Sequence to fold (177 residues):
Amino acid sequence: MIRADRDRRDIMRNCDSQYGRMRSVNISRHSDLALRTLMLLAVGEDRGDRMTAAIIATSVNASASHVAKIVSRLVELDLIASRRGRGGGLAITDAGRAASVGALLRELEGPGEVIECEGDQPCPLARNCRLRHAFVEAREAFFATLDPLTVADVVRSPTRQVILSLDPAFSPTGGSE
Ligand code: SF4
Fold:
């Protein structure tokens, strides 16, 4: 019993030392902006808005270069389409509307861990730690909760009304690149 307590204390001490490297199950700003971009496109297209990366960047209060990178990635994933030339712009695809939020986050966040157990100052338990395995399962459970939710689901009322209220940046005639 005493040994078990000591083992537990050792594990917690090791975890404490890694807190500075803790990522938690929070999603990155990059992924959040990707979701916001899809949400804006889903609503904007419904009312025939011409959408560009610059308009989206203004609407979500992010830099144009960051949104441009996100747009490229979403085009690569076939979730949005980019039409060039006069009257061109960005449009969400059918796959984009039907995209699962959980699946998209798994794709964008990659295989990372909740805590960085290895790296510059690796934890001595990293090779085989039950807690580490539990964190991996917890992270997957977080994504699994979001699996049934699609982009089309998350832009339903009342979110739709909020997005539509983002004028003037997010307007049928707004901005150009
Ligand atoms: S291996 Fe990772 S989860 Fe396990 S005790 Fe060390 S820092 Fe914590």
